[in-house]
Every structure is written in structure tokens, then in C-alpha cells.
User: Which sequence fits this backbone?
């Protein structure tokens, strides 16, 4: 594999904790300059993968290069090339935002003057210039995350790792982080992002890797993933819920797929292959049967449905399990 | 919007004096962080320094009247070396809280993801805590002088006593770092207090081990704190208990041996524990 054209290459990474295989042959190849989303439920191994790739954990087996540097044999060098924004805002609560950035800048050996200049640049850039002098404990969740992000960018890393960057944020804070990530990638940084939010992966990532039980089980663009698991879906919203059984029979016959229904939303749906033909046929058949539809739509499957199809269990099912990250 | 900027760091030097200079400079950044905490939270600093002063006043004036020193002597003269040593012991709690807070909040992981000297995180922490303890000890000495405590055998012996006290603090610091890395939950400081308070009180600080039940007296006499207290009482020329046990007879020796023994055990344990964060 030509690693110079990939920002991240991982081959067969393994990490075991007692009986738990946190990583079980984890392979990954992320081209330069894109956002790659690692999508999976709690306990899938996403955080462990990020901790291995950022040199915080040593893998039991396998190898990986980040920005062309071996993360085990050249760990110190790799730390110059990567930025990490972990699950918790890893900041000193007592110090001001600016003091935090200056401190981390000095630990990157920028020297005091350069560390200060860089801190001011980043505060400006993340809209924190006005609040830079306040202690971090007075910051909102979104502000902390932005400061955390700024701290990960002090050295302008070529690869930035974001571990569930919007977990626990309100919609406004989430949007702030999404905008920041968008502008980073526009400037050429490669971003590896882990998320449990399908919406987030769909919105930010050019490539999505679905992670389950310590390995990547599917990868591709959001569109490719959706196509790969059975194409589009036809949804019919009925006016009355007592017509659901009849509508299911019609939809099932026309599409040849397994129809599903939801009584609360009066929705009947099924996967389709021939988009337009199926649509025309369903409209005609419903009309003949005297069933009134409020709405009929053709849509791509949601990432929730993608995950369910790929893993055989819903994304939420194991949400209670703890992410293994010692 | 640009990322490329004034930020372009030099790669770490391969070895030798350059590397040492970097390690020292990194440790200083971590120490400086703690000093900035003092500037940002002066009230917390003052409370931390004055708590032991309150303890002194309580023991000197509240209980002091009822205490008789065998062989005569002033109770406050007797009390102060014990209070100095207690202040050193209670420092474990501050160290533990700082270390476990950083680990639980992910700050330690951020440090570990930076191209900084790995030793700097703990070295900087221990330097900051030692500076804090020097300040605390200075306040306590001033407090002692204010209530009538004096040293009697000259500044050289007094400085040696201060040295023994700081040696004890330095040794206990590594227990604090170790516990902080193992327990990783700042809320557990309560549990650490339960560990620390008996160490503080089950000693010769306030009462003579000779007056305790035999087994308890033996524990008190062999308590590392008791060795430091007895040795500093001797060096300051303050009254003490004496005692017939080997530990009491060789208190000055044990005031060196105990801290060194604690260091030999907990320094490598802490370093290993820190390295094992990557396991």
C-alpha cells in the first residue's frame, strides 16, 4: 500500500484487555485531505483505535502509519504530526483559555513568544478572542469544545483525531464544532472522527468506516454504503391506520421486498429496485384498492438502517456497554 | 482562515544535554501551570496555608493547657515540630487530588499526546508541590514563632530539621502521585484522608507512645512520621518524649531511612504506573 498518499494507514491492529478484544484486526486507509468517520456504537473499538493511532496506547499486534510516520517505532515524531481532541475537553479548568493554549504551545516547544502569538491566532479563529482571559470553568460546553479543538491545532497537524467531538453538546454547540471541522478540511487537514451520531457522520464525512467488535466491517462514501445495502426505500404515509394491512400487502407485492410498518406514523415502507416503476405501480394499486395516501416518497436509507443491516443489531442496542479505554 | 501559521516546532533533540534541557523546560511549564493556579485562586491558596495554622492554634490554646510534658518544657515548643510534620503528611491529599483530576479529565492524555518529555508531567507536579510545601512550612514556622516556639541549637541544626521535613514531604509525594494514577477519581480523596489521618495522629505528635496500649504504642513509634517528629524536635532543641524502643532511640537515623525507603518503593511504582497508561 502506498502510504504517502494516505494520511492514515492501519493494518491488522489488535488490542486485548483480558477477555475483551477491543481491536481485532483493525484495518483502515484514509486518503489525505478528507474527513473519515468511524461510525459505531459504544464498545465497538472506536476510541481504542484513536488512542492507538495517536500513540496513547501500544497495539498488541499490527502496524500503523499516520502522516507517513510509524506510530510505534517513531512515536515521538508522530506526536508532532497529529492533533488529538479526546472525548473529554482536556483542559485546565482553573486557567484561562489563553493560558491553556500558551501552556500546550510551550509543551510543543514553540517558545514563549511564539506560543503566545499562536494562542492569540487560534482564539481569534475560534471566536474566543473576547473570552480568552476568562477561566475555562466559566465556558459553555461549545466554547470548551472549540478551545479543545484549538489546543489540538496548535502545531497545525496534518492529521487531526476527533473522538466523539460533539457528545454532550447542545445543537448550537454541535453546529459550532461542525463548522470548525468543515473549515479545517477546507484548509487541507485530514480528520478522523469517531461518532455514534449517524447524522454527524453523514454530514461531515466523505468516507465512513462502520466499526463493530474491533474491526471495520464496511466502508465507503455515505452514498456507496447506502447503495450497498439494498438501494432505495419507498415509503407510503396513509390517512387511516386501519388500512395498514391492506397497504402492506400491496407494497410487498409491487416491490417484491419485505414491507415494514409503523402504526404511530401510519407509514408503510419497503426497499425497492426499480424506483420509478415501483412508484407508479404502487400509486395505481393503492388507488384501485381505494386506499388514500397522504404522502408517497422514494428515499435513500438512513445510516441507522445501514448499521442495522450491516451488523444485524441496531446501533442503540449496546449503548449501555462501556467503551474499552484503559 | 489558515491553519499554517507561526507554529512550527523544532523536533526533539536526539539526546545528551539538549534532551535534558528540554525535559527541564517541559517540567517548568507544568510547574508554572500550578503556580498560575495560585495566582488565579488566591483564596484557595490562603485557606490551604491557614488550615494547619488553625490546627496549631486549636492544639496550643484549646488542648495545650491540659498537656504535661514529661521532664518539663513548654507545650508549644513541644507541639510545633509535630505540626510541621503533619503539614507535610497532609500534602498527600493535594498531590492526589491534582494527579487524579488530570487523569480523569483527560489532561494527562493530552500531555501524553504531545511531543514533550514524558518525565516532565510528574517532575513538574512534584516541583510544584514541593514549592507549595516550602511556602506552607514557612507560614507554619512564622506561626510557631508568633506563639512562642523557638529553635535553640542554631540555624544550622534548624535548617537540617527543615530539610528532614521536606524530605518526608518529597517521599510522601510519590505515594500521592501513585495513588492518583491508580485511583483516577478526585472524589476518592475521602478515602485517601482515611488513610492519611491515622498516619498523622497515630504517632508521637500529640501524645507519648508510652501512654498508649502496647501494640498501638509500637505502631506509633515505628510510624515514619514519628521518626521525623522526634528527629526535628531534637534538632530544634525542643522537648520530646524520648522512649526505650529501638525506633525511638534511633529516630534521627529513621528520619532518613523511612523517606528513602518510601521513595525506593513508590518512585519506581509511580513511573511504572505512568508508563502503563499506554497498556
Assistant:
Amino acid at each position: 500500500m502506498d502510504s504517502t498518499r494516505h494520511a492514515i494507514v492501519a493494518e491488522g491492529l489488535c488490542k486485548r484487555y483480558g477477555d475483551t478484544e477491543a481491536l481485532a484486526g483493525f484495518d483502515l486507509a484514509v486518503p489525505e485531505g478528507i474527513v473519515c468517520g468511524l461510525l459505531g456504537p459504544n464498545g465497538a473499538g472506536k476510541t481504542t483505535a484513536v488512542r492507538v493511532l495517536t500513540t496513547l496506547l501500544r497495539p498488541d499486534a499490527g502496524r500503523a502509519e499516520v502522516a507517513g510516520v510509524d506510530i510505534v517505532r517513531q512515536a515521538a515524531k508522530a506526536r508532532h504530526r497529529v492533533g488529538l481532541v479526546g472525548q473529554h475537553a482536556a483542559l485546565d479548568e482553573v486557567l484561562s483559555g489563553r493560558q491553556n493554549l500558551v501552556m500546550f504551545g510551550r509543551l510543543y516547544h514553540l517558545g514563549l513568544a511564539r506560543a503566545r502569538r499562536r494562542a492569540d491566532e487560534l482564539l481569534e479563529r475560534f471566536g474566543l478572542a473576547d473570552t480568552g482571559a476568562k477561566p475555562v470553568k466559566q465556558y459553555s460546553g461549545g466554547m470548551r469544545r472549540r478551545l479543545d479543538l484549538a489546543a489540538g491545532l496548535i502545531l497545525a497537524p496534518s492529521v487531526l483525531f476527533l473522538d466523539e467531538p460533539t457528545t454532550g453538546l447542545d445543537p448550537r454547540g454541535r453546529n459550532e464544532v461542525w463548522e470548525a471541522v468543515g473549515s479545517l478540511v477546507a484548509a487541507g487537514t485530514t480528520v478522523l472522527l469517531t461518532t455514534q451520531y449517524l447524522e454527524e457522520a453523514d454530514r461531515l464525512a466523505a468516507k465512513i468506516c462502520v466499526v463493530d467488535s474491533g474491526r471495520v466491517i464496511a466502508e465507503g462514501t455515505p452514498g456507496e454504503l447506502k447503495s450497498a445495502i439494498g438501494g432505495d426505500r419507498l415509503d407510503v404515509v396513509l390517512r387511516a391506520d386501519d388500512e395498514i394491512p391492506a397497504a402492506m400487502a400491496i407494497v410487498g407485492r409491487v416491490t417484491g421486498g419485505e414491507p415494514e410498518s409503523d402504526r404511530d406514523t401510519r407509514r408503510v415502507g419497503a426497499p425497492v429496485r426499480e424506483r420509478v416503476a415501483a412508484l407508479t405501480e404502487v400509486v395505481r394499486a393503492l388507488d384501485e384498492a381505494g386506499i388514500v395516501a397522504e404522502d408517497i416518497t422514494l428515499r435513500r436509507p438512513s445510516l441507522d438502517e445501514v448499521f442495522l443491516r450491516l451488523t444485524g443489531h441496531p446501533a442503540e442496542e449496546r449503548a449501555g456497554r462501556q467503551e474499552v479505554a484503559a | 482562515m489558515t491553519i499554517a501559521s507561526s507554529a512550527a516546532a523544532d523536533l526533539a533533540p536526539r539526546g545528551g544535554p539538549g534532551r535534558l534541557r528540554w525535559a527541564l523546560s517541559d517540567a517548568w511549564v507544568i510547574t508554572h501551570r500550578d503556580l498560575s493556579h495560585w495566582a488565579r485562586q488566591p483564596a484557595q491558596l490562603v485557606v490551604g496555608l491557614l488550615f494547619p495554622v488553625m490546627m496549631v492554634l486549636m492544639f496550643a490554646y484549646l488542648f495545650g493547657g491540659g498537656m504535661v510534658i514529661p521532664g518539663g518544657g513548654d507545650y508549644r515548643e513541644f507541639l510545633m515540630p509535630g505540626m510541621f510534620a503533619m503539614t507535610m503528611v497532609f500534602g498527600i491529599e493535594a498531590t492526589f487530588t491534582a494527579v487524579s483530576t488530570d487523569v480523569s479529565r483527560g489532561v494527562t492524555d493530552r500531555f501524553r499526546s504531545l511531543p514533550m518529555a514524558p518525565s516532565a508531567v510528574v517532575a513538574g507536579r512534584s516541583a510544584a508541590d514541593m514549592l507549595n510545601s516550602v511556602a506552607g512550612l514557612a507560614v507554619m514556622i512564622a506561626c510557631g514563632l508568633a506563639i512562642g516556639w523557638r529553635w535553640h541549637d542554631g540555624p544550622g541544626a534548624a535548617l537540617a530539621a527543615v530539610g528532614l521535613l521536606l524530605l518526608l514531604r518529597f517521599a510522601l509525594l510519590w505515594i500521592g502521585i501513585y495513588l492518583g494514577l491508580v485511583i483516577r477519581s478526585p472524589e476518592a480523596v475521602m478515602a485517601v484522608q482515611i488513610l492519611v489521618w491515622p498516619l498523622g495522629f497515630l504517632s508521637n505528635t500529640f501524645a507519648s507512645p508510652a501512654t498508649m496500649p502496647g501494640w498501638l504504642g509500637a505502631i506509633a513509634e515505628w510510624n515514619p512520621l514519628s521518626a521525623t517528629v522526634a528527629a526535628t524536635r531534637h534538632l530544634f532543641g525542643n522537648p520530646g518524649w524520648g522512649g526505650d524502643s529501638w525506633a525511638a532511640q534511633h529516630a534521627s537515623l529513621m528520619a532518613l531511612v523511612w523517606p528513602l525507603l518510601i521513595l525506593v518503593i513508590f518512585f519506581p511504582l509511580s513511573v511504572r504506573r505512568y508508563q502503563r497508561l499506554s497498556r
